[in-house]
């Protein structure tokens, strides 16, 4: 497997990738699919229980992310999807306790317009993903396709190794996998603090 193949999930023409973060969101995604004519859709569902984030009237829209926290004067943004959204929200709360304001964005499917908006904020964007960096690969494509976009403010935390190659994970509890891969709320907090110092 070449380096270019590791995170190109959309290598299948017109495949729509969705990473659900809460039960209500899953219902919204299923409703969206049942409306028909969506083409080939891949939905990633969480492997552990999850609290409800979205309201009952939530409507899923492919290609649209959502600010779950967007405090005035945010110093950084944490962008995630799937169960990683819960760790991002917990990290944002821990950061608030330390006097650092962080926004949280749920991006179940890639939202290029929101990605550019986040980039244009000039803030650090941390992308903790419980996969091999799908959102980061999408951000990277946006950076390469548009002029004058800077990559230094976009910091990935995912399951790729130091050489950018995918790893096969050992079996473990959810919490152990978070810790092993620097994806726990506390580790995300450490990453945010670290990048804000640079």
Describe this entry's structure for a reader.
- It is a single chain.
- The chain is of the alpha/beta class and 198 residues long.
- It has a single domain (3-196), classed as Rossmann fold, CATH 3.40.50.
- The protein contains six helices and seven strands; from the N terminus they run E-H-E-E-E-H-E-H-E-H-E-H-H.
- It has helices at residues 23-34, 84-97, 112-120, 134-145, 174-180, 185-196, and strands spanning 16-19, 41-44, 66-69, 76-80, 102-106, 124-128, 154-157.
- The strands form two sheets. A five-stranded mixed β-sheet has the order 3-5-4-6-7, sandwiched between helices. The chain has a two-stranded parallel ribbon with strand order 1-2.
- Helix 4 links the parallel strand 6 and strand 7.
- Helix 2 packs across helix 6 (185-196).
- The longest helix has 14 residues, at 84-97.
- The radius of gyration is 16 Å and the shape is globular.
- The termini are far apart.
Strands, total number: 7
CATH topology: Rossmann fold
Given the C-alpha coordinates, what overall shape results?
A: globular
Task: Indicate the CATH class.
Answer: Alpha Beta
| Major sheet description | 5 strands, mixed
By DSSP (H or I, 4+ residues per run), the number of helices equals: 6
Ranges where pLDDT stays below 50 over 5 or more residues in a row are 1-10
SSE pattern: EHEEEHEHEHEHH
CATH architecture: 3-Layer(aba) Sandwich
The N- and C-terminal alpha carbons lie at a distance of: 34 Å
């Amino acid at each position: 497997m070449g380096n270019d193949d590791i995170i190109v999930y959309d290598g299948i023409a017109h495949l729509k990738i969705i990473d659900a973060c809460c039960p209500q969101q899953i219902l919204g995604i299923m409703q969206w699919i049942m409306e028909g004519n969506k083409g080939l859709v891949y939905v990633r569902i969480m492997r552990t229980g999850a609290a409800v984030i979205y309201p009952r009237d939530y409507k899923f829209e492919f290609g649209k992310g959502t600010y779950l926290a967007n405090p005035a004067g945010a110093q950084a943004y944490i962008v995630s999807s799937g169960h990683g959204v819960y760790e991002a929200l917990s990290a944002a709360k821990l950061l608030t306790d330390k006097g650092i304001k962080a926004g949280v964005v749920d991006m179940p499917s890639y939202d290029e317009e929101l990605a550019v908006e986040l980039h244009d904020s000039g803030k650090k964007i941390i992308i903790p993903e419980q996969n091999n960096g799908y959102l980061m690969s999408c951000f990277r494509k946006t950076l390469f396709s548009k002029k004058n976009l800077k990559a230094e403010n976009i910091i990935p935390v995912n399951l790729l190794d130091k050489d950018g190659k995918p790893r096969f994970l050992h079996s473990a509890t959810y919490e152990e996998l978070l810790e092993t891969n620097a994806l726990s709320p506390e580790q995300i907090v450490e990453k945010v603090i670290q990048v804000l110092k640079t």
